[in-house]
Specification:
Elements: H1 14-22, H2 31-38, H3 43-52, H4 54-62, E1 70-78, E2 86-89, E3 92-95, H5 99-107, E4 109-118, H6 130-133, E5 138-148, H7 149-157, E6 163-174, H8 177-180, E7 188-191, E8 196-199, H9 201-209, E9 220-222, E10 225-229, H10 231-240, E11 248-255, H11 259-270, E12 274-279, E13 284-289, E14 294-301
Parallel strand pairs: 1-4, 4-5, 5-6, 6-7, 6-8, 7-9, 8-10, 9-11, 10-11, 11-14
Antiparallel strand pairs: 1-2, 2-3, 12-13, 13-14
């Protein structure tokens, strides 16, 4: 905002000259009017203001709850380079020079979409006030070498996570509670095979509880190393889960038992005609349920 330059040094710039003639003094503006005017500042204005007018910047910071927050559809926090944080807000990259800038930005945003983190300690997200993150609806986490399960669960509990994707991440601890922490309106789950996370039938149980007549679930892809499910647990999951009416995918890393045992249990308990085949390009076994819009993919069988 141009009138914030009134405290800068003299300059030949024409805009600055006009402001000097007006003798405008930001600090003499009535407080209510000042706060109203500040509500139109965007994040970039706020960061620029920090270097222009420290006093006014601090006043904004201390009263940020009265300001109009920037609605953020998607927030991307990436630390691909050492000691360097890149922030992308609504597809716009912001230059974050230090940690204080990151903390300040977090005060002034309202996240309504997906939170993406790449190679970032989720402890960073505790600096986003709860009210600013509670409207988010999804999380994408990738390239995280060591992620403690309790930290991940606390993060997911802070908003209604309907979409979850985890890639190339090593999760420390039993991961079943991840799915208990998701929204009651969960739509899709993807955990890729380059991720390590120990999971059991309890994960499928928590996911099925999120399904109802009013909430159909799309793809459930749990391919992470360390995830082993029993045939009976999978059958129970299919019976209790309301999948989308078009063909959905249930893709699992490992099933205990043999392929023949698994196929027999599916046929006997689901009263289904099942077509099984191998997808050689992806090295997985497929089981197409003829009377239900569902295809099951299994990467490996524990005793084959």
């Amino acid at each position: 905002m141009q009138f914030l330059c009134d405290e800068q040094d003299e300059s030949n710039d024409s805009k600055t000259t006009v402001q000097r003639k007006d003798n405008f003094n930001w600090q003499l503006m009535p407080f209510d009017l000042k706060m109203y005017t500040m509500s139109f500042l965007n994040i970039s204005d706020l960061m620029n203001l920090k270097s222009i007018n420290r006093c006014t910047y601090l006043m904004i910071s201390h009263n940020y709850q009265k300001l109009k927050k920037l609605n953020v559809t998607d927030l991307i926090i990436s630390a691909k380079k050492k000691c360097n944080i890149n922030i992308t807000i609504n597809s716009k990259n912001l230059n974050i020079k230090n940690f204080d800038d990151f903390v300040e930005i977090c005060k002034h945003i309202n996240i309504t979409g997906v939170i993406y983190t790449q190679n970032v300690d989720l402890n960073f997200l505790k600096y986003i006030p709860y009210n600013n993150i509670s409207s988010a609806n999804g999380a994408v986490i990738w390239d995280t070498k060591h992620l403690n399960i309790s930290l991940l669960v606390n993060f997911l509990n802070s908003f209604n996570c309907q979409y979850l994707q985890i890639c190339n991440t090593n999760i420390i601890g039993y991961g079943d509670k991840i799915f208990e922490s998701l929204s009651n309106y969960v739509k899709e789950i993807v955990i890729t095979e380059d991720t390590y996370c120990e999971l059991s039938d309890k994960s499928l149980y928590y996911i099925s509880k999120k399904s109802s007549r009013n909430n159909t679930i799309g793809n459930v892809i749990i391919q992470c190393d360390g995830a082993i499910f029993t045939p009976n647990g999978i059958v129970d999951f299919i019976k209790k889960t309301n999948f989308i009416p078009t063909i959905g995918n249930l893709s699992l890393r490992c099933v205990s038992g043999t392929k023949e045992e698994f196929l027999k249990i599916l046929c006997d308990n689901l009263n289904e005609e099942i077509q099984d085949y191998s997808v050689y390009g992806f090295n997985v076994h497929a089981f197409q349920l003829i009377n239900r819009p569902l295809c099951i993919f299994v990467k490996e069988f524990l005793y084959n």
